[in-house]
Design goal:
Number of strands: 5
Strand content: 15-25%
Number of domains: 1
Number of helices: 6
Distance between the termini: 35 Å
CATH superfamily: HUPs
Low-confidence stretches: none
CATH class: Alpha Beta
Order of helices and strands: EHEHEHEHEHH
Mean pLDDT: 95
CATH architecture: 3-Layer(aba) Sandwich
Length: 154
């Protein structure tokens, strides 16, 4: 069985991320939601919150585990027995970026990347737009349990 690694900062996890995790499980049998730590990126939510949100959002998916890593995704994948990085794209600009990253992942780490296109209903969704909504009291695009946790002050 191949492990699919869905990578990102998950600041916060969105319905788009959940789509990717469900598809990864369907395609590969299991998935790791890998929270990557980028010291150059200021996150709205703490690492602990982001990991807890992922756990809440994937409670009904026993094939999904949650992990974090300070470094390159390819290094984590190789340190943990290999697998495939799974990334989502919403449009042409996303695809160009992800295709280049896939080339680099293969070149520097020997890890393949599988690119999934978002369904039309999720194309507008990003962590940035969800964070903007949260600041206005709008929790659209969040998994229900995550929206509840944020509203309770997580």
């Amino acid at each position: 069985m191949t492990t699919g690694y869905v990578t990102g900062t998950f600041d916060p996890v969105t319905e788009g991320h959940i789509f990717l995790l469900r598809e990864t499980v369907r395609l590969f049998g299991n998935a790791v939601a890998l929270v990557l730590i980028n010291p150059d990126k200021a996150c709205e939510f703490s690492l602990e919150n982001r990991m807890e949100f992922l756990r809440l959002a994937t409670e009904d998916m026993p094939e999904v585990s949650v992990a974090f890593y300070h470094g390159f995704a390819v290094d984590y994948v190789n340190l943990n027995g290999g697998g495939i990085i799974v990334r989502g794209v919403r449009g042409e600009a996303d695809f160009e970026y992800e295709a280049e990253m896939a080339r680099v992942n293969k070149e520097i780490g020997g890890v393949e990347t599988f690119i999934l296109h978002s369904p039309d209903a999720l194309v507008h969704l990003s962590s940035t737009t969800v964070r903007e909504g949260i600041s206005r009291g709008n929790y659209d695009g969040l998994p229900e349990k995550v929206a509840d946790a944020i509203q309770k002050g997580a």
